[in-house]
Specification:
The structure holds two protein chains of two kinds.
Chain A lengths: L5 H9 L5 H19 L2 E3 L2 H16 L10 E5 L26 H9 L3 E6 L33 H8 L6 E4 L6 H7 L2 E4 L20 E5 L2 H11 L29 E5 L9 H16 L3 E5 L7 H16 L18 H12 L2 H13 L5 H22 L5 E5 L15 H5 L6 H6 L3 E9 L2 E9 L4 H14 L12
Parallel strand pairs in A: 2-3, 7-8, 7-9
Antiparallel strand pairs in A: 1-3, 4-6, 5-6, 5-10, 9-11, 10-11
Helix pairs in contact in A: 2-3, 5-6, 7-15, 9-11, 9-12
Chain B lengths: L4 H10 L6 H18 L34 H5 L5 E2 L2 E2 L7
Antiparallel strand pairs in B: 1-2
The chains are: A alpha/beta, B mainly alpha.
Chain lengths: 485, 95
């Protein structure tokens, strides 16, 4: 049951072979036993989960169930959920119990009937690539507990990899769904910007942030995206488009699929073992009928520098709301109002978050705005235009998700720049606003390797199709870590 | 470009984050490392390139000018550090 797909769980629930209460109890038991070694969940409230499971069972019995009703799922702790502690991995929100639901939470739980197993650990305010910046301590990778699970959605990745949950949500600002999916052997999808509502998703960099599913297969991701996506008038950047069934093309043959290989993703800087697994996956795609096309993304080397201007600029503005007045942490001792702000923010934020706020404050300050912020926005345009040109020659772009497999805890923690370069292949996708996926494509020295798929705007169904057909022909995505029975 | 210690302290003040002298020195090193990465941008000629603020070139939607939200003040103030009589309490600003 712990390896079952969402479709299998759905059929078992519909046929009454298992109840949602039993299924939820099974995963809650696993969380209780295995989470202490992983630190994947920061909040578990078994009674709340079981109440939702009972409601789901009633809905199934009453004939009003949808395909995902009663299936348990883990929620990244960036999504506000009414009555649940919602921390965003920060001391600033360590005791914040949300008074409202994010749209993603409302749609997944209120409408689709999924059952929340709890809130997963994450890098503080989603700023990190290793889950080490969390106020609640690092998450450990179930494949090797001395290694990081990736970040920022590291808790969600570890939870699904260790089968503490059938699936989870994540958010991706610069690679935070795809990189942990790669490092933990999961399938993760970052949708086109504007597909999934950001309402109630605690903001990091608003022009880049996008929620999406993390699961064991492309098919599961498609079903979850069906429940997450959709227009939301409460998000001013939500796109008003006709509803899509993201699973509609899963089985479509891949003959004729043109796969673009950007030369910039296949040069130096990628570990040999990662490159070998990626090349083997591309050979598999050729067997499935796809053809390879050489493309170029000539400005992709500028994506990390441009991102570390744009994302901190937006973060410094977004995080100004944490001032100790309306919600969250307030310093216990202070003098003036200004002193209260300064002490509250000094104590409530961790080092990485402070660094990014400072970078953002500087690049937006008088005299530096043009040289940094505007220049970064112009480079963002060049990067997006590179993709437009590449997609004239191909349907899907492929390459590695991450330049390395999971690195050791502490290995990059002392040098922010080394950590930032972990996202060298994922960041351009966010700057352009395109959909991207990572799927398991093999192992290097016993650690999972992720294949990245990048699609044109609104090409989610096409990406999921390409990923699903590959997963029909391979079994990398079915592997799970030992010692997690 | 390289930030001085005084600049780091000034930025921290602008961001309303208290910073000790020791923290400022460590932060200075980290920020200068990050800005060395960022400086790669300066080699690119972007004259004539339209800045891209957003992934989707959309205008802001307008909604009808009518009340759509319910009163949630009590629920929202319940999570505030200090409230009294429906007001958020902060240190005195005006003498």
């Amino acid at each position: 049951m712990i390896d079952a797909s969402l479709n299998e769980l759905s059929r078992a629930l519909a046929a009454k072979r298992v109840s949602s209460v039993e299924l939820t109890g099974l995963f809650l038991d696993r969380i209780e036993r295995l989470n202490p070694a992983l630190n994947a969940f920061v909040t578990v409230e078994a009674e709340k989960s079981l109440d939702s499971a009972r409601a789901a069972d009633a809905r199934i019995a009453g004939g009003g169930a949808g395909p995902l009703t009663g299936i348990p799922i883990a929620q990244k702790d960036i999504f506000c959920a009414e009555g649940w502690r919602t921390t965003c991995g920060s001391r600033m929100l360590a005791n914040f119990v949300s008074p409202y639901d994010a749209t993603v939470i409302r749609k997944m739980h209120g409408e689709a009937g999924l059952v929340s197993l709890g809130k997963t650990n994450m890098d503080e305010f989603a700023m990190g690539s290793s889950n080490e910046t969390s106020h609640f301590g690092p998450v450990r990778n179930p494949w090797d507990r001395e290694r990081v699970p990736g970040g920022s959605s590291g808790g969600s990745a570890a939870a699904v990899a260790a089968r503490l949950a059938p699936a989870a949500t994540g958010t991706d600002t610069g690679g935070s769904i795809r990189q942990p999916a790669a490092l933990c052997n999961l399938t993760g999808l970052k949708p086109t910007y504007g597909i999934v509502s950001r309402y109630g998703m605690i903001a990091f960099a608003s022009s880049l942030d996008q929620g999406g599913p993390m699961a064991k297969s492309a098919e599961d991701c498609a079903l979850l995206l069906n429940a997450m996506a959709g227009f939301d008038e409460r998000d001013s950047t939500s796109l008003d488009r006709p509803t899509e069934d993201y699973a509609r093309d899963l089985d479509r043959p891949l003959s004729g699929l043109r796969i673009g290989l950007p030369k910039e993703f296949f040069g130096e800087g990628c570990a040999a073992g990662v490159m070998m697994a990626v090349q083997a996956a591309l050979a598999e795609y050729e067997k499935l009928g796809a053809t390879m096309v050489d493309v170029s993304l000539p400005n992709s080397h500028l994506s990390v520098p441009a991102y570390y201007v744009i994302a901190p600029a937006e973060a410094s503005s977004n995080l100004s709301r944490f001032d100790g007045v309306r919600y969250g942490y307030r310093a216990p001792e202070y003098g003036s109002l200004d002193d209260m702000y300064m002490k509250t923010r000094a104590q409530g934020f961790g080092d990485e978050v402070k660094r990014r706020i400072l970078i953002g404050t500087y690049v937006l300050s008088h005299g530096y705005y043009d040289a940094y912020y505007l220049q970064a926005q112009r480079i963002r345009r060049l990067i997006a235009d590179d993709f437009v040109a590449a997609f004239r020659q191909c349907d899907v772009i492929m390459g590695p998700t991450s330049p390395t497999t999971a690195f050791k805890l502490g290995e990059k923690a002392a040098d922010p720049v080394q950590m930032y370069l972990s996202d060298i292949y994922t960041i351009a996708v966010n700057l352009a606003g395109l959909p991207g996926m990572s799927l398991p494509c093999g192992f290097a020295d016993g650690l999972p390797v992720g294949l990245q798929l990048i699609g044109n705007y609104f090409a989610e169904a096409r990406l999921l199709n390409a990923a699903h057909r590959y997963q029909q022909a391979t079994d990398w995505h079915r592997r799970r870590p030992e010692g997690m029975a | 470009m390289s930030l001085t210690l005084e600049q780091v302290q000034r930025i921290a003040h602008l961001a309303r984050i208290e910073i000790s002298a020791a923290e400022a020195a460590t932060t200075q090193g980290h920020l200068n490392g990050i800005f060395r990465l960022i400086e790669q941008m300066q080699a690119v000629d972007t004259r004539g390139v339209d800045p891209m603020a957003h992934a989707q070139d959309l205008g802001q939607r307008l909604r009808d000018d009518k009340v759509t939200e319910e009163d949630c003040r009590a629920a929202f103030q319940a999570v505030a550090p200090e409230c009294e009589a429906g007001l958020y309490l902060v240190p005195k600003v005006i003498e």
